[in-house]
Amino acid sequence: MRSRTAYTLLDKxxxxxxxxxxxxxxxxxxxxxxxxxxxxxxxxxxxxxxGLHDLVKTRFASSMEAVDGAIDRSHRSRTxxxx
Length: 83
Fold this sequence. Notes:
The protein contains three helices and no strands. By secondary structure, the chain is mainly α. It has one domain (2-79). The radius of gyration is 19 Å and the shape is elongated.
């Protein structure tokens, strides 16, 4: 399943590889079933899928960089000799 692939890749800190697997349901599958979902009174969730896709494309990498930077600074401060 594509969603499992995306989760696995995100767990491995590989958002660029996960992004197509998240975008796939929005771009290809949702469009094919959107009318049927409306007919069955299923609440729209395309905007939620789009938001997740955008989050992975834009913020995941910068968030991970910020976390990595904080960890690095923490390690450096621990190894620095007191003055």
